[in-house]
Design goal:
- The protein has one domain: Nuclear Transport Factor 2, Chain: A, CATH 3.10.450.
- Helix content is 47%, strand content 29%.
């Protein structure tokens, strides 16, 4: 991660949530990622997409694409971040749009990941 991207991510709640989630994802610690999703995602979002469904999608992505890293921060708002991610194995690019609630503990209210290609 470039220094400017790291600085942008660490200066807002959405960026910190993205870092935490991607760290668990990249480590392959899916039991801990399951707990993170349950504790860090807003209940309304989990109603739309259950944690087990999201975890299954992330596991499948990890098998196919490997680890991911931030290639570029596209947009930053106080409670939202959009980043371009690059995968380890096939160098596929995807956009991640992550938003959090304004109040602490800043639970995730949106996690959208779309292919950039």
């Amino acid at each position: 991660m470039q220094d400017i991207s790291k600085q942008l991510l660490t200066q807002n709640a959405a960026g910190m949530r993205l870092i935490a989630q991607m760290t668990l994802y990249n480590s392959g610690n899916f039991p801990r990622l399951r707990t993170y999703i349950a504790e860090s995602y807003h209940p309304a979002l989990l109603e739309e997409q259950p944690g087990n469904t999201l975890l299954a999608l992330l596991k499948a992505q990890r098998r196919v694409s490997g680890k991911v890293r931030v290639r570029q921060v596209i947009a930053v708002d106080k409670y939202q971040i959009v980043v371009l991610m690059e995968s380890e194995f096939n160098e596929a690019l995807s956009f991640v749009d992550l938003a959090v609630e304004e109040e602490y503990p800043h639970r995730i209210t949106r996690f959208d990941q779309k292919s950039a290609g």
